[in-house]
Amino acid sequence: MSLLHTINKSPFERNSFDSCVAHAKKGSSILLIEDGVYAATQGTAAARKLEGIMKDVKVYALQPDVNTRGMQSKMLDGVNLVDYGGFVDLVTQHNAVQAWL
Asked: Is the pLDDT of residue 1 over 90?
């Protein structure tokens, strides 16, 4: 079963990011939305955790949220940017969605 994990809180404010990373299984995907996009900031502990799982887990970030936060040049390499249509596509491509709040 493929699972799409969504994270909408900053990893610097809540532990939902760490919980998600700990539960993400091979073949699942993580979508960073809202303040969750800060997890993909180059050079941070959160980004190092993402790098550690990216061989098994696909990582996406919502482009409008990245743009709104001025994160375009700070994003970790290998994070796939998607628009709202891509968000919908990800939901339909996975068996279930787990929102980490």
From this structure: no
Range of the domain at 85: 3-100
CATH of residue 30: 3.40.1260.10
Instruction: Give the pLDDT score at 7.
Output: 98
Number of domains observed in the structure of the chain: 1
- Contact criterion met (CB below 8 Å) for 56 and 26: yes
Quickly list DSSP for the chain: --EEEEE-S-TTT-SHHHHHHHHPPTT-EEEE-GGGGGGGBTTSHHHHHHHHHTTTSEEEEEHHHHHHTT-GGGBPTTPEEE-HHHHHHHHHHSSEEEEE-
What CA–CA distance (Å, rounded) separates 51 from 47?
6
Q: What is the mean pLDDT of the segment spanning 71-99?
A: 97
